[in-house]
Amino acid sequence: MNTLENNYRHEIKFIINNSDIELLKKKLSLFMHEDNNYNGEYLVSSLYFDDIYNNSYQSKLAGDYIREKYRIRYYNNDRSYITLELKGKENNLCYKRRDIITYEEYNHIIKKEYDKINIGNRKLLDRFIFDMKNKNLIPNIIVDYYRKAFVYDIEDVRITFDRDIKSSMFNYDLFDKKRFKLNALDNGEIILEVKYNNRLPNFINEIINNTRLVRIAVSKYVLCMDKKGI
Q1: pTM of the model
Q2: In 3D, which of 209, 211, 215 has the Cα closest to residue 193?
Q3: Domain assignment of residue 4, yes or no
Q4: How far apart are CA 34 and CA 152, in angstroms?
């Protein structure tokens, strides 16, 4: 799976209060459909990597022109589909690259047994292992949350509601269901993300503008790292 080509997208983030969510969902559902890959809400679990100086975290705080971070992610506690992802931002546009890995390969990565991984044509995995070796990347924090997604196929618009965002700060076993978790947001607060290619349709823009939202620049990764006391 060759995933080193960038697909740039706009990404806008807000915090919305729980009391405004249901009305917003009803408005969006008139024009958008739920994500076909999942039936309703689903659990997202991600293990982020950084170096000992937390350069990916510091780069985000500094608002660097170009910044990237690695993560391993899976959904609904299902080990059969695990992805290695590179999330990046360049000139206010975001991109994401992805390779599929197995649970066994995940364990080899955590144990630094890179010679036991058959990389094949997975260019992102190849780059990730190179960076693990040469930049001394280590597991840094786990972020869990529940997501509900709405999709509008024109301009590939995707609006997500992420609730119950939690961090696991000192247990880096992504598949440990007994991990201790700490809330990253106040009760009732949810992160709304709006993603699209070139232009956000006017009717969606109007719905968003007529909802009580607080725009934010930080990511869920940064929110959870802040809880870690970096």
Answers
A1: 0.92
A2: 215
A3: no
A4: 9
CATH number at residue 133: 3.20.100.30
Sign of the C-alpha dihedral, residues 97, 101, 103, 108?
A: negative
Residues 109, 117: contact at Cβ < 8 Å? yes
Is 116 domain-assigned? Answer: yes
Give me the sign of the Cα torsion angle 1, 49, 96, 202.
positive
In total, how many domains does the chain have? Answer: 1
Give the position of tokens 């170009």: 66
Asked whether residue 205 is assigned to any structural domain, the reply reads: yes
**177 SS3 class:** coil
Angle in degrees, CA 45, 51, 52, rounded to 5: 115
Structure tokens belonging to residue 33: 């459909």
**pLDDT tens digits for 1-36?**
444 456 899 999 999 988 899 999 999 999 999 988
Domain of residue 50, residue span: 10-228
